Amino acid sequence: xxxxxxxxxxxxxxxxxxxxxxxxxxxxxxxxxxxxxxxxxxxxxxxxxxxxxxxxxxxxxxxxxxxxxxxxxxxxxxxxxxxxxxxxxxxxxxxxxxxxxxxxxxxxxxxxxxxxxxxxxxxxxxxxxxxxxxxxxxxxxxxxxxxxxxxxxxxxxxxxxxxxxxxxxxxxxxxxxxxxxxxxxxxxxxxxxxxxxxxxxxxxxxxxxxxxxxxxxxxxxxxxxxxxxxxxxxxxxxxxxxxxxxxxxxxxxxxxxxxxxxxxxxxxxxxxxxxxxxxxxxxxxxxxxxxxxxxxxxxxxxxxxxxxxxxxxxxxxxxxxxxxxxxxxxxxxxxxxxxxxxxxxxxxxxxxxxxxxxxxxxxxxxxxxxxxxxxxxxxxxxxxxxxx
Length: 388
Ligand SMILES: Cc1cc2nc3c(=O)[nH]c(=O)nc-3n(C[C@H](O)[C@H](O)[C@H](O)COP(=O)(O)O)c2cc1C
Hints:
Structural class: alpha/beta
Radius of gyration: 24 Å
CATH superfamily of the largest domain: CoaB-like
Bound molecules: flavin mononucleotide
Strand order of the largest sheet: 15-14-11-16-19-20-21-22
Strand content: 25-35%
CATH topology of the largest domain: Rossmann fold
CATH architecture of the largest domain: 3-Layer(aba) Sandwich
CATH class of the largest domain: Alpha Beta
Helix content: 25-40%
Shape: elongated
Number of domains: 2
Number of helices: 13
Protein backbone atom coordinates (compact mmCIF):
# COMPACT_ATOMS: atom_id res chain seq x y z
CA UNK A 1 0.00 0.00 0.00
CA UNK A 2 2.30 2.71 -1.23
CA UNK A 3 1.54 6.34 -1.55
CA UNK A 4 -0.43 6.74 -4.74
CA UNK A 5 0.06 10.48 -5.01
CA UNK A 6 3.41 12.21 -4.74
CA UNK A 7 3.18 15.85 -5.84
CA UNK A 8 3.15 18.47 -3.10
CA UNK A 9 2.93 22.21 -3.69
CA UNK A 10 4.08 24.40 -0.80
CA UNK A 11 2.70 27.95 -0.82
CA UNK A 12 4.71 30.22 1.45
CA UNK A 13 3.47 33.65 2.50
CA UNK A 14 4.95 36.56 4.43
CA UNK A 15 4.98 35.25 7.99
CA UNK A 16 7.88 34.80 10.39
CA UNK A 17 7.34 31.03 10.51
CA UNK A 18 8.36 30.72 6.83
CA UNK A 19 11.78 29.36 7.88
CA UNK A 20 10.11 26.24 9.33
CA UNK A 21 8.94 25.21 5.87
CA UNK A 22 12.55 24.61 4.81
CA UNK A 23 12.61 21.76 7.32
CA UNK A 24 9.27 20.46 6.03
CA UNK A 25 10.62 20.48 2.48
CA UNK A 26 13.64 18.44 3.59
CA UNK A 27 11.39 15.90 5.23
CA UNK A 28 9.15 15.60 2.16
CA UNK A 29 12.12 15.21 -0.19
CA UNK A 30 13.78 12.67 2.11
CA UNK A 31 10.60 10.56 2.05
CA UNK A 32 10.50 10.63 -1.77
CA UNK A 33 7.85 13.27 -2.48
CA UNK A 34 8.10 15.73 -5.35
CA UNK A 35 7.87 19.27 -4.09
CA UNK A 36 7.37 22.58 -5.89
CA UNK A 37 7.21 25.91 -4.09
CA UNK A 38 5.42 29.22 -4.67
CA UNK A 39 6.52 32.23 -2.63
CA UNK A 40 4.52 35.44 -2.30
CA UNK A 41 6.31 38.79 -2.63
CA UNK A 42 6.13 39.26 1.16
CA UNK A 43 7.55 35.74 1.77
CA UNK A 44 10.75 36.81 -0.02
CA UNK A 45 11.52 39.01 3.00
CA UNK A 46 11.75 35.91 5.19
CA UNK A 47 13.16 33.12 2.97
CA UNK A 48 14.78 32.89 -0.45
CA UNK A 49 13.91 30.72 -3.49
CA UNK A 50 17.50 29.49 -3.48
CA UNK A 51 17.14 27.98 0.01
CA UNK A 52 14.25 25.81 -1.24
CA UNK A 53 16.10 24.85 -4.43
CA UNK A 54 19.21 23.88 -2.43
CA UNK A 55 17.13 21.63 -0.19
CA UNK A 56 15.60 19.68 -3.05
CA UNK A 57 12.54 21.54 -4.36
CA UNK A 58 11.99 20.64 -8.01
CA UNK A 59 11.01 24.18 -8.92
CA UNK A 60 10.43 27.44 -7.07
CA UNK A 61 8.18 30.20 -8.38
CA UNK A 62 7.54 33.80 -7.40
CA UNK A 63 5.19 36.45 -8.77
CA UNK A 64 7.83 37.26 -11.39
CA UNK A 65 6.88 33.95 -13.05
CA UNK A 66 3.15 34.65 -13.00
CA UNK A 67 2.85 35.80 -16.59
CA UNK A 68 4.84 33.06 -18.27
CA UNK A 69 3.91 29.76 -19.89
CA UNK A 70 4.92 26.23 -18.88
CA UNK A 71 4.06 23.03 -20.79
CA UNK A 72 1.70 25.03 -23.00
CA UNK A 73 -0.27 26.48 -20.03
CA UNK A 74 0.05 29.48 -17.76
CA UNK A 75 2.11 28.60 -14.69
CA UNK A 76 -0.87 28.75 -12.31
CA UNK A 77 -2.86 26.28 -14.41
CA UNK A 78 -0.01 23.82 -14.89
CA UNK A 79 0.87 24.00 -11.17
CA UNK A 80 -2.75 23.51 -10.08
CA UNK A 81 -2.99 20.39 -12.26
CA UNK A 82 0.38 19.06 -11.09
CA UNK A 83 -0.21 19.37 -7.32
CA UNK A 84 -2.02 16.47 -5.64
CA UNK A 85 -2.17 18.61 -2.53
CA UNK A 86 -1.38 22.25 -1.75
CA UNK A 87 -0.23 23.39 1.69
CA UNK A 88 -0.20 27.12 2.42
CA UNK A 89 2.13 27.51 5.41
CA UNK A 90 2.61 29.84 7.04
CA UNK A 91 -0.68 31.35 5.89
CA UNK A 92 -0.87 35.07 6.70
CA UNK A 93 -4.07 36.82 7.75
CA UNK A 94 -3.76 38.56 4.39
CA UNK A 95 -3.69 35.41 2.22
CA UNK A 96 -6.54 33.89 4.24
CA UNK A 97 -8.69 37.00 3.64
CA UNK A 98 -7.85 36.97 -0.06
CA UNK A 99 -8.57 33.26 -0.60
CA UNK A 100 -11.85 33.58 1.32
CA UNK A 101 -12.92 36.37 -1.02
CA UNK A 102 -11.74 34.89 -4.29
CA UNK A 103 -9.06 37.51 -4.81
CA UNK A 104 -6.42 36.22 -7.19
CA UNK A 105 -3.85 38.92 -7.72
CA UNK A 106 -0.73 36.80 -7.34
CA UNK A 107 0.60 33.41 -8.49
CA UNK A 108 -0.25 31.51 -5.31
CA UNK A 109 -3.84 32.82 -5.24
CA UNK A 110 -4.53 32.03 -8.90
CA UNK A 111 -3.06 28.54 -8.44
CA UNK A 112 -5.30 27.89 -5.41
CA UNK A 113 -8.38 29.21 -7.22
CA UNK A 114 -7.68 26.92 -10.18
CA UNK A 115 -7.03 23.80 -8.06
CA UNK A 116 -9.52 20.95 -7.71
CA UNK A 117 -7.34 19.06 -5.23
CA UNK A 118 -7.18 19.49 -1.43
CA UNK A 119 -5.84 22.82 -0.17
CA UNK A 120 -4.55 22.91 3.41
CA UNK A 121 -4.18 26.26 5.15
CA UNK A 122 -1.93 26.62 8.20
CA UNK A 123 -2.51 30.07 9.74
CA UNK A 124 0.36 31.55 11.72
CA UNK A 125 0.36 35.04 13.17
CA UNK A 126 0.21 37.22 16.26
CA UNK A 127 -2.58 36.10 18.61
CA UNK A 128 -4.63 39.31 18.24
CA UNK A 129 -4.48 39.00 14.45
CA UNK A 130 -5.55 35.36 14.68
CA UNK A 131 -8.40 35.93 17.13
CA UNK A 132 -9.62 39.04 15.31
CA UNK A 133 -13.21 38.29 14.24
CA UNK A 134 -12.31 39.23 10.65
CA UNK A 135 -9.66 36.48 10.49
CA UNK A 136 -11.93 34.05 12.34
CA UNK A 137 -14.85 34.65 9.98
CA UNK A 138 -12.56 34.24 6.96
CA UNK A 139 -11.33 30.91 8.37
CA UNK A 140 -14.92 29.83 9.07
CA UNK A 141 -15.83 30.62 5.48
CA UNK A 142 -12.85 28.63 4.17
CA UNK A 143 -13.82 25.63 6.32
CA UNK A 144 -17.35 25.70 4.92
CA UNK A 145 -15.90 25.91 1.41
CA UNK A 146 -13.95 22.68 2.01
CA UNK A 147 -10.47 23.99 2.80
CA UNK A 148 -8.67 22.06 5.53
CA UNK A 149 -7.58 24.49 8.24
CA UNK A 150 -4.60 23.39 10.29
CA UNK A 151 -5.17 25.14 13.61
CA UNK A 152 -2.15 26.97 15.04
CA UNK A 153 -0.88 26.05 18.49
CA UNK A 154 -0.43 27.94 21.73
CA UNK A 155 3.18 28.84 22.39
CA UNK A 156 5.85 31.49 22.08
CA UNK A 157 5.20 33.71 19.09
CA UNK A 158 7.68 35.88 17.18
CA UNK A 159 7.64 38.69 19.75
CA UNK A 160 8.32 36.09 22.49
CA UNK A 161 4.79 36.58 23.85
CA UNK A 162 2.78 33.47 24.72
CA UNK A 163 -0.36 33.00 22.68
CA UNK A 164 -2.28 31.11 20.04
CA UNK A 165 -0.93 31.55 16.54
CA UNK A 166 2.18 29.40 16.38
CA UNK A 167 2.62 27.18 13.33
CA UNK A 168 2.34 23.49 14.19
CA UNK A 169 5.47 21.35 14.32
CA UNK A 170 6.86 20.28 10.98
CA UNK A 171 6.29 16.56 11.73
CA UNK A 172 2.58 17.24 12.28
CA UNK A 173 2.33 19.34 9.10
CA UNK A 174 3.99 16.44 7.28
CA UNK A 175 1.33 14.02 8.55
CA UNK A 176 -1.44 16.49 7.62
CA UNK A 177 -0.13 16.38 4.05
CA UNK A 178 0.22 12.58 4.11
CA UNK A 179 -3.45 12.20 4.97
CA UNK A 180 -4.34 13.51 1.52
CA UNK A 181 -1.86 11.34 -0.41
CA UNK A 182 -2.95 7.84 0.60
CA UNK A 183 -6.02 5.72 -0.07
CA UNK A 184 -8.27 5.18 2.95
CA UNK A 185 -8.71 1.40 3.41
CA UNK A 186 -9.07 1.90 7.20
CA UNK A 187 -11.87 4.45 7.04
CA UNK A 188 -14.43 3.85 9.83
CA UNK A 189 -12.05 1.41 11.53
CA UNK A 190 -10.88 1.94 15.09
CA UNK A 191 -7.28 0.95 15.67
CA UNK A 192 -5.82 0.57 19.15
CA UNK A 193 -2.00 0.62 19.26
CA UNK A 194 0.32 0.18 22.23
CA UNK A 195 3.91 1.40 22.13
CA UNK A 196 7.03 1.71 24.26
CA UNK A 197 8.21 0.23 27.53
CA UNK A 198 6.46 0.15 30.87
CA UNK A 199 8.20 0.73 34.21
CA UNK A 200 7.88 -1.20 37.46
CA UNK A 201 9.17 0.79 40.39
CA UNK A 202 11.38 -0.72 43.09
CA UNK A 203 11.49 2.49 45.13
CA UNK A 204 10.55 6.11 44.23
CA UNK A 205 13.52 6.52 41.87
CA UNK A 206 14.47 3.05 40.64
CA UNK A 207 12.56 0.82 38.26
CA UNK A 208 12.65 -2.25 36.03
CA UNK A 209 12.10 -1.66 32.34
CA UNK A 210 13.43 -2.68 28.91
CA UNK A 211 15.03 -1.07 25.88
CA UNK A 212 11.91 -0.55 23.75
CA UNK A 213 11.88 2.89 22.07
CA UNK A 214 8.25 2.85 20.94
CA UNK A 215 9.30 3.72 17.38
CA UNK A 216 7.51 0.76 15.75
CA UNK A 217 4.22 1.35 17.58
CA UNK A 218 4.35 5.06 16.81
CA UNK A 219 5.01 4.32 13.11
CA UNK A 220 1.99 2.00 13.05
CA UNK A 221 -0.19 4.64 14.73
CA UNK A 222 0.88 7.30 12.20
CA UNK A 223 0.33 5.04 9.23
CA UNK A 224 -3.08 3.89 10.54
CA UNK A 225 -4.06 7.57 10.66
CA UNK A 226 -2.84 8.11 7.08
CA UNK A 227 -4.95 5.18 5.95
CA UNK A 228 -8.06 6.71 7.48
CA UNK A 229 -8.41 4.93 10.86
CA UNK A 230 -9.55 6.44 14.12
CA UNK A 231 -6.45 5.81 16.25
CA UNK A 232 -5.95 5.39 19.98
CA UNK A 233 -2.33 5.16 21.08
CA UNK A 234 -1.50 3.84 24.55
CA UNK A 235 2.16 4.46 25.25
CA UNK A 236 4.68 3.95 28.02
CA UNK A 237 8.21 5.35 27.84
CA UNK A 238 9.18 6.25 24.27
CA UNK A 239 12.10 8.03 22.66
CA UNK A 240 10.06 9.56 19.85
CA UNK A 241 7.54 12.42 19.89
CA UNK A 242 3.92 11.32 20.06
CA UNK A 243 2.13 12.05 16.78
CA UNK A 244 -1.33 13.61 16.54
CA UNK A 245 -3.82 10.77 16.78
CA UNK A 246 -7.43 10.73 17.94
CA UNK A 247 -6.58 9.74 21.52
CA UNK A 248 -3.17 9.29 23.14
CA UNK A 249 -2.86 7.91 26.65
CA UNK A 250 0.36 7.77 28.65
CA UNK A 251 0.82 4.92 31.11
CA UNK A 252 3.64 3.93 33.46
CA UNK A 253 3.15 0.35 34.64
CA UNK A 254 2.12 -2.86 32.87
CA UNK A 255 -1.03 -3.02 35.01
CA UNK A 256 -1.98 0.50 33.93
CA UNK A 257 -1.37 -0.41 30.29
CA UNK A 258 -3.52 -3.51 30.67
CA UNK A 259 -6.37 -1.50 32.22
CA UNK A 260 -6.28 1.18 29.51
CA UNK A 261 -6.14 -1.50 26.77
CA UNK A 262 -9.16 -3.33 28.18
CA UNK A 263 -11.12 -0.06 28.58
CA UNK A 264 -10.45 0.98 24.98
CA UNK A 265 -10.69 -2.47 23.42
CA UNK A 266 -14.50 -2.64 23.39
CA UNK A 267 -14.63 0.08 20.74
CA UNK A 268 -11.69 -1.19 18.66
CA UNK A 269 -11.70 -3.21 15.44
CA UNK A 270 -7.95 -3.81 15.40
CA UNK A 271 -5.51 -4.23 18.30
CA UNK A 272 -1.81 -3.81 17.53
CA UNK A 273 0.07 -4.84 20.64
CA UNK A 274 3.50 -3.39 19.90
CA UNK A 275 4.49 -2.22 23.37
CA UNK A 276 7.09 -4.04 25.40
CA UNK A 277 5.54 -4.23 28.87
CA UNK A 278 7.99 -5.06 31.65
CA UNK A 279 7.50 -8.78 32.29
CA UNK A 280 8.44 -8.63 35.97
CA UNK A 281 7.76 -6.32 38.88
CA UNK A 282 9.19 -6.23 42.41
CA UNK A 283 7.03 -8.20 44.84
CA UNK A 284 7.13 -5.26 47.23
CA UNK A 285 7.48 -1.55 46.61
CA UNK A 286 9.64 0.38 49.06
CA UNK A 287 8.24 3.87 49.46
CA UNK A 288 11.52 5.49 50.59
CA UNK A 289 14.66 5.57 48.46
CA UNK A 290 16.74 2.49 49.32
CA UNK A 291 20.18 3.28 50.73
CA UNK A 292 23.15 2.02 48.70
CA UNK A 293 23.81 -1.38 50.28
CA UNK A 294 26.56 -3.88 49.45
CA UNK A 295 23.98 -6.41 48.44
CA UNK A 296 20.24 -6.31 47.95
CA UNK A 297 18.05 -9.28 47.11
CA UNK A 298 15.32 -8.16 44.79
CA UNK A 299 12.30 -10.47 44.60
CA UNK A 300 10.32 -10.31 41.39
CA UNK A 301 6.96 -11.60 40.25
CA UNK A 302 5.32 -11.78 36.84
CA UNK A 303 3.30 -8.79 35.64
CA UNK A 304 -0.13 -9.14 34.02
CA UNK A 305 -0.31 -10.74 30.59
CA UNK A 306 -2.07 -8.00 28.58
CA UNK A 307 -2.77 -10.10 25.48
CA UNK A 308 -4.14 -12.98 27.53
CA UNK A 309 -6.53 -10.63 29.28
CA UNK A 310 -7.44 -8.86 26.01
CA UNK A 311 -8.19 -12.15 24.27
CA UNK A 312 -11.27 -12.54 26.54
CA UNK A 313 -12.80 -9.63 24.60
CA UNK A 314 -11.52 -10.59 21.14
CA UNK A 315 -14.81 -11.47 19.39
CA UNK A 316 -14.22 -10.69 15.69
CA UNK A 317 -11.53 -8.07 16.28
CA UNK A 318 -8.20 -8.42 14.52
CA UNK A 319 -5.30 -8.96 16.96
CA UNK A 320 -1.64 -8.52 16.01
CA UNK A 321 1.24 -9.02 18.42
CA UNK A 322 5.01 -8.71 18.30
CA UNK A 323 7.55 -11.34 19.33
CA UNK A 324 11.16 -10.53 20.02
CA UNK A 325 13.61 -13.34 20.71
CA UNK A 326 17.32 -13.90 20.60
CA UNK A 327 16.94 -17.62 19.76
CA UNK A 328 14.52 -19.79 17.77
CA UNK A 329 12.69 -16.62 16.75
CA UNK A 330 10.22 -18.06 14.23
CA UNK A 331 9.40 -21.11 16.33
CA UNK A 332 8.79 -18.98 19.41
CA UNK A 333 6.74 -16.45 17.43
CA UNK A 334 4.51 -19.22 16.01
CA UNK A 335 3.94 -20.60 19.51
CA UNK A 336 3.00 -17.15 20.83
CA UNK A 337 0.63 -16.62 17.86
CA UNK A 338 -1.28 -19.81 18.71
CA UNK A 339 -1.06 -19.50 22.49
CA UNK A 340 -2.41 -15.93 22.52
CA UNK A 341 -5.06 -16.49 19.84
CA UNK A 342 -3.60 -13.81 17.55
CA UNK A 343 -4.43 -13.28 13.89
CA UNK A 344 -0.90 -12.15 13.07
CA UNK A 345 2.44 -11.96 14.78
CA UNK A 346 5.50 -9.95 13.82
CA UNK A 347 8.78 -11.70 14.65
CA UNK A 348 11.79 -9.46 15.13
CA UNK A 349 15.20 -9.49 16.77
CA UNK A 350 16.84 -7.18 19.34
CA UNK A 351 18.69 -5.34 16.53
CA UNK A 352 15.36 -3.65 15.73
CA UNK A 353 15.15 -2.09 19.21
CA UNK A 354 15.55 1.67 19.08
CA UNK A 355 16.59 1.57 15.41
CA UNK A 356 14.92 3.57 12.64
CA UNK A 357 15.05 0.59 10.29
CA UNK A 358 14.43 -3.09 10.84
CA UNK A 359 13.82 -6.53 9.46
CA UNK A 360 10.67 -8.44 10.32
CA UNK A 361 8.79 -11.64 9.52
CA UNK A 362 5.01 -11.32 9.57
CA UNK A 363 3.29 -14.62 10.31
CA UNK A 364 -0.43 -15.16 9.76
CA UNK A 365 -2.75 -17.49 11.65
CA UNK A 366 -2.54 -19.89 8.69
CA UNK A 367 1.26 -19.75 9.26
CA UNK A 368 1.97 -17.91 5.99
CA UNK A 369 5.19 -15.96 6.36
CA UNK A 370 6.16 -12.62 4.82
CA UNK A 371 9.57 -11.05 5.25
CA UNK A 372 10.22 -7.35 4.96
CA UNK A 373 13.08 -4.94 5.58
CA UNK A 374 12.92 -1.13 5.63
CA UNK A 375 12.30 1.91 7.77
CA UNK A 376 9.76 1.44 10.57
CA UNK A 377 7.32 3.57 8.59
CA UNK A 378 7.75 1.28 5.55
CA UNK A 379 7.35 -1.76 7.79
CA UNK A 380 4.11 -0.25 9.12
CA UNK A 381 2.77 0.25 5.58
CA UNK A 382 3.80 -3.32 4.72
CA UNK A 383 2.03 -4.74 7.78
CA UNK A 384 -1.21 -2.92 6.95
CA UNK A 385 -1.01 -4.02 3.30
CA UNK A 386 -1.00 -7.64 4.51
CA UNK A 387 -3.51 -7.52 7.36
CA UNK A 388 -6.29 -5.40 5.86
C1 LIG B 1 8.40 41.30 10.48
C2 LIG B 1 7.03 40.95 10.00
C3 LIG B 1 6.50 39.76 10.38
C4 LIG B 1 5.22 39.39 9.96
N1 LIG B 1 4.70 38.20 10.36
C5 LIG B 1 3.45 37.88 10.00
C6 LIG B 1 2.88 36.66 10.45
O1 LIG B 1 3.52 35.85 11.14
N2 LIG B 1 1.61 36.39 10.07
C7 LIG B 1 0.86 37.23 9.31
O2 LIG B 1 -0.31 36.94 9.05
N3 LIG B 1 1.40 38.38 8.87
C8 LIG B 1 2.66 38.73 9.18
N4 LIG B 1 3.19 39.89 8.74
C9 LIG B 1 2.41 40.75 7.81
C10 LIG B 1 2.48 40.22 6.39
O3 LIG B 1 3.82 40.06 5.99
C11 LIG B 1 1.75 41.19 5.45
O4 LIG B 1 0.36 41.17 5.77
C12 LIG B 1 1.96 40.85 4.00
O5 LIG B 1 1.26 41.79 3.20
C13 LIG B 1 1.47 39.44 3.68
O6 LIG B 1 1.56 39.22 2.28
P1 LIG B 1 1.25 37.77 1.68
O7 LIG B 1 0.02 37.31 2.35
O8 LIG B 1 1.05 38.03 0.21
O9 LIG B 1 2.45 36.94 1.90
C14 LIG B 1 4.48 40.27 9.13
C15 LIG B 1 5.05 41.47 8.75
C16 LIG B 1 6.29 41.81 9.17
C17 LIG B 1 6.86 43.13 8.73
